[in-house]
Structure formats: C-alpha cells, structure tokens
Amino acid sequence: MKALIKDFIQHPEKKEKFDEIALELFDYLYHHNLAYQKFCQRRGIGVRQVRTWKDIPAVSTDAFKTNFLSATPKEDCSRIFMTSGTTTGISGKHYHKDVEIYDLSAKTGFRQFVTSEKLPMAILFPDEQEMPNSSLAHYLEILRKDGQEDSKHFITEKGLEIEAFKEWLGRHKDHPVIILGASYSFVHLFEGLQEGESLPIHPDSLLFDTGGFKNFSKAYSLEDFYQKLLTIFPVQTAPINMYGMTELSTEYYTHVEKGKVQIKKGPHWIRFKVIDPLNGEEVQSGQVGILVHVDLANVNSVPAIQTGDLAIDRGDGFELIGRQKGAGAKGCSLSAKEWLEDHHE
After folding, report:
1. Higher model confidence: residue 330 or residue 23?
2. What Gene Ontology molecular function terms does this protein carry (predicted)?
C-alpha cells in the first residue's frame, strides 16, 4: 500500500486516479485497522458500499482520543503524534508505523505551495527534542533539514529568543529567508517588540504561519494579524498560512491577500467535502458545513477525517469559517502558547 501511495504523491500527472487509489486505501485500512472496521460496520458500511472517495466513512477527530486507530500493532509504530489535549485534558494520538510517507507529503506539498528554493529558515516553534510528540515540530524539522544549514529554531527552553532572532535576521538581510511559526508565536513576538518596530528582512523573503491566534492574551482579527506581520516584516509576497492537524498527514495552504477570500488548497493526494453534521450529506454549494478530509497519506490510520471546522466549498479549495460550536481551539497555537508560558524568562 505504501509503495502505491508514494508513487501517487510523486506523480501529479496521475491525479485522476485519486478515486481508485482512495478505494484501495479504504479496503486496506478496513481489513487491517480493526477499530476502523468496527466503526464502519456499526454504520452498516463495508467495502461494497463504498464506491467513490466521498463514500468513505469519516472518523471524528475526537475518536483519536479514545481509540487505537492503527493498521500496525502499537509496539511496531515508530512515531506517535499527539494533540495538545488542552480543551478536554485528553490528547488524541495518531500512530505512524514510520514517517516516510508523512515526510514525503510534507516536503512535496511545501515545495508545491510555498517554495522549491532552499532558503535559510527562522523557526518560531520548539524543535522535536523539546516537543517529540508534536506533528508540527516534526513537520518544521523536515523543512529545516531540507533548507540551508543556517536554519534555526528561536523558541527554546529559554522561551522566544527575540535578540538572537534579530541578530540572525541582520546577518541574512541581503538575501531572502523564510520565517515559519505557529500563529501564536508571532503574537508573542509582536508583544516583545516596540510599537511600530520593523525588523531587517530582504523584500523577497517569505512569511509562514499556522494555527490560530484567537482566545489568547491579545486577540487579533485575521486582517489585523497579517497587517501587523507585514509592518514588522515588510516583504513583497503575501504571507502563507498552513492548515493542518495531528490527525492528517497532509497540509493545505493559502496566500493571505488583503480583501480576498482566503481559499485553502491542497495537493492532489488530499480532497475534502463539506457536510451537514445532522445527516452526513454534502451541503449545497456556498453553504457552511463541517469539513471532512480524505487524505491518502494516512496510510496507517484512517483515510477520512471529520473535523470540528466550519467551511465553505469554493471549488478549487475551501474557505475556513471557524470552529463548530463546542469544538476546541486548534492545537498548533495552543502548543506554542503553553510552551512560551512555561518557558518565559
């Protein structure tokens, strides 16, 4: 199964085979992930009832908190990525036999939607040693290794090292860099700088954030957040926001342009639909519903994930509206917030 998915990710010209491969992945996980098989059977769904990728039963992200969703025995899984668990006290766990497909998905998607250039990276998030069960820490480590040698983390056991970050920027001001971090990491940076202060940066540099920034010490609207970001880092390219979650192995991206609807787009090995949570059916075009993903890079867990996110299908991507009532805040920024609060000098 892994070889099939790997080949599909590496060959975008085969994207029309998504449906065929999604059904093969469903068949494989139905027979090898017993918890998922029971989930499907309780809904009266077997392999014969699933005829297109849209028919694949989607597991709620909450199920990862209480169920072992893996086609591989626990002792044979090399990595476990965990959600923050902040809102309920219980962490969701995503088991991976290995991270070969995960890493391939991350690098390939990033090169397609962000940049294929090897740029120096400033990472405003703890590294994998500090957060070994964070999927975002692993994702950023993949990118760091794929970037230039002088790529560095600036959130350490000391907290956000603003002076070291400024010094690094000064050394790189004559060529493009990329600054990546959880949205809350940038909020923390905002609060550590002087009002109106801007930092030295090459105008062709890239800005990249992920997660959200509401419900924290200082709330920013989407527009205010990115306006502040561009005031501090006066670059020419629109900032890039990444949408991902622990339960997925693929990310979506959007270029955040003022006054435009922010459409999140993913690579050819992930698709989405927007459903009515009351009946599971797709909502009409332009209506708000619950976001469901079918991620072919989820080779060891479940192929379809029902989120707590509200969205509108915009055809070539989705517009994220917010969170379903009762759903907690997204974990990336929560993780960054907790780390910074625990390690603030």
Report:
1. 23
2. long-chain fatty acid--protein ligase activity
